[in-house]
Prior knowledge:
alpha/beta, Rossmann fold, Methionyl-tRNA Fmet Formyltransferase, Chain A, domain 2, 2 domains, seven-stranded antiparallel sheet, 9 helices, about 25% helix, Formyl_trans_C, Methionyl-tRNA formyltransferase, methionyl-tRNA formyltransferase activity, Formyl_transf_N_sf, Formyl_transf_N
Amino acid sequence: xxxxxxxxxxxxxxxxxxxxxxxxxxxxxxxxxxxxxxxxxxxxxxxxxxxxxxxxxxxxxxxxxxxxxxxxxxxxxxxxxxxxxxxxxxxxxxxxxxxxxxxxxxxxxxxxxxxxxxxxxxxxxxxxxxxxxxxxxxxxxxxxxxxxxxxxxxxxxxxxxxxxxxxxxxxxxxxxxxxxxxxxxxxxxxxxxxxxxxxxxxxxxxxxxxxxxxxxxxxxxxxxxxxxxxxxxxxxxxxxxxxxxxxxxxxxxxxxxxxxxxxxxxxxxxxxxxxxxxxxxxxxxxxxxxxxxxxxxxxxxxxxxxxxxxxxxxx
Length: 315
């Protein structure tokens, strides 16, 4: 089939590479200009450079809603558009133009985790598995019929970076497998159960801030979800930002006020956590590694030279 690819960052790069390696003919690539947004500088393999290396024409757009793009699409006459990690709304006159419509590749097990940063949100929420979904695009965000979907388990120590590598390897088989079904003439696919749909927003620095009223189990997953190269989970100590690079749920149960720097436990320092911490029934978050405001990384037992005081959400 004649394919136009809309994509960005490593997700788009992997999708384009899969298309170039397949029997399909990539006739045009549309991608975003480079961005300085913290989350868009991560996994930033260039879709434009890969396309140019293979002689595929490239158009740069922030939004695909101009007449010039529409006319160019009509000229190249695609059988299908394939999109992955396209960051802005694609209007119906674009996604409905090809003979077979538009296939969107999303790194979540739809209908849950539509929208942005699905792997990070899924890890924070303790989901047992994550995956990749190929679905037909319609006017509602990530809501079209599912053509193909594959899942991988979330391990007990997996970080968001680990889940990225697990799921990015699913892009090629999910994309090419879905295109194979469409090329073979299949037109009926799995409807999404919209009662199960959830939508998540783009992450920002605010979303990495530690709230000590969360249970320790949730905070431990937040720290893993904000693993390098993502911006780290952070708190404040004596008015200065402190990045929490590694942590585990404490063995002991600690009562008192959330955020209290309480007890050395093994290689970590236990912090009281949970909205009902006063009951003494909660485990704490045992921080094991931190980074100071001036960029120094060290073990928590080295940083916290004495117990007492509080970690806070604000300076």
